[in-house]
Amino acid sequence: MADPRLALTDEWFLAHGLPYFVPEQRAGARDALRLGRTVPLVVLTGLAAAAAGVALALVSGQLTLAPATAVTLGMLAAGWYALTALRASPIVRWALHRAFGSLRTVLPMMTRALPLLLIFVTFLFINAEVWQVSSRQDGAALWLVALLFGILAVLFLLVRLPEEVDRTDDQVDDALLLLACRGTPLEDAARDLVDDPGADPAAHAEIHGFERWNLVLVLLVIQAVQVLLLSATVFLFFMLFGSMVMRDDVVETWIGEPTANLTVELFQVSIFLAAFSGLYLTVATVTDETYREQFFGTVLHEMERAVGIRAVYLALRERR
């Protein structure tokens, strides 16, 4: 007979953005990654995205629309497949809820991260070369540059965030298991297993495979939302600052030609610097110990709790 506590814990995992901690969800995601399913989808999506990009480029006369459209459609298709077939929607939903639910912590992060960044980036803003580069890009090319900065930031996080996750299962002991399971369906089971000399639930604490990447994705979405909010603040600052200090004759001198619309060029420069600031903030919040604690402190405690509950969950499944 199945233990009802296991079913309740499965529901708890799903509600807290941990679908890959549930064996059935994990098996479904693993099946969706089989080459027999993914390769045809990748080929068809790539062909459709390329065709759409070429068509838009021919109609508009802007060659940069082809790669911009293809890359954007490919990313949208990959995101949709992840949310549906790979069962990642609970991860994204909980991470977004967690990120926007802690907006009160964004102001302290801004006061810590933004002043030095704004001082540094302001010197770029009043640099003629930055205006020349940004103003000569059409919308598609500027979008590709912003995507490039975003992709680099995500790749950096995918390299560094697993290190943060690996730290969560290093200090798991009986006291942590009891604390983690408090108020969950496994509270009584944790006490029984800890008191049982023949059981060792802490032995199940090591995270690997899909479950490890589940925690990485949670951190990735939370980090992305916070960096986007800070980048949006940088963008708004430069739009306001530029509208106050920039003049048509100065911009014309910098870019070497009459300006058709200062607002458009100001928008392009602000987007470029905001995207660059997002990449800088991503690196700073992971490599700097103070920033890291500010960004990840409370979330990592929740990750430790998830690891503890999972250890008891696996020990109880093994016993049953």
TrEMBL record:
> Which segments cross the bilayer?
39-59, 65-86, 106-128, 140-159, 215-246, 266-286
Q: What are the alphabetically sorted keywords of the record?
A: Membrane, Transmembrane, Transmembrane helix
**Has UniProt tagged this entry with the keyword Transmembrane?**
yes
Write down the species. Nocardioides furvisabuli
Top-level taxon: Bacteria
Q: What is this protein called?
A: Integral membrane protein
